[in-house]
Amino acid sequence: MGRIYTVKVYEENLIVEITHEYAQSIVEKTKNLLGKNINIMNSLGIIVGSKDKSRIDTFHEGAAEVIKTGKEIEITSKQASELEGVKPGVNLPIYLNDNIVGVVGITGEPDEVRPYGQLLKISVEAMLKQFFLSEQLRMEQNAKELYVHDIINWNFEDTNVFLTKGEVLGYDLSLPRLALNIKVNNLVIKEKSKGLYDNQELTAQEKREKILDCIKKVFDNPQNMISHNGSNYYIVFFAPQKIHVKTVKQQIKEIADKLSKKLEKYSVKFCIGVGSYYPGLAGLRKSYKEAVKAIQIVERKSPGQLPQIIFAQDLSLEMMLAAAPDEIINIYKSQLLAKEGAKDFLSDEKLINTIKAFFSANLNISKSATKLNVTRNTVNARLDKIKTLTGLSPKDFNDAVKLMVLLKAIDVK
Hints:
Beta-Lactamase, 15 helices, 3 domains, 5-stranded mixed sheet, elongated, Arc Repressor Mutant, subunit A, alpha+beta
């Protein structure tokens, strides 16, 4: 079933208008049960739902009087003949939050249909209240998501006004936060459930909503600011317990474990890019850009092999190189690869794997050999070949730094 009403905002007050779709659905469900014609009118006295479909969108004078006085009206056959668009019956006001939002009427002699009218009125008001609360929650959530997008896009002019808006939404903006960019890798998910529809494929919208719901449940601190950002990305401005590197990393790892368990039934994998902490709104935006760039760097380096969490702080060199102009990076590459045959080094997979293992082993030959499952002599021979091709010795600290920067630059550019 679609929306049961439209909500308009006038001077910060919510005005509810019952839609034809909702009104007609009530009529269809109850007409056979009651055996009577039912009419539902909106706040203007227009019939928006009726068993007699020819009456829809016509004016009901009795309903207009109910709206005006706030009192129910019973109309006999004699009285009905004197009013516009009216048949005998009982017409009762529909209230929501002490405001009349419509009228429900049952056709027939008042003594006969009066009890049905009261029951129908109570049912309609109860459903309206339930969905109205849901609508309020939806509007609040939309406002919170929009607020997150306004931060990352810097879509505001007056900072003080924007901060006040955040406070109205329930955020303590004096708290330190850092940005998390969550990328869902396989959005073609299926619901794992018992019954006839096992592994039923979900619609795109259902997928996004279920994933977002899982993210909200694990980032359950109301000070965490959460939003969906495109088809398979989600943003969290995470408010940690303490802005301490080790503590923050541990918190995020624990949350990631919880999220994995939540998403397991949907067979969803994800990667979280974590930006560094910077103060203020501008700091949040900067942190978000780092979180995005962290995923991009690792994805370029190892396509399809993203780890579950990537901390921008662990990629400080790569982040610096990614921010450098392409012209500067290209000059650096050309200078280090100027020697004849140097470019052959970059196309030799064994040499590349060896020097990367050597660097990750802190320039330790034995550890490198163990990691590569080769002998120390093999590692030494490959490192010597790199020196021959490039003129730079990986065993020399200064040359090693130059080669490491070269490899990092190639990864990010």
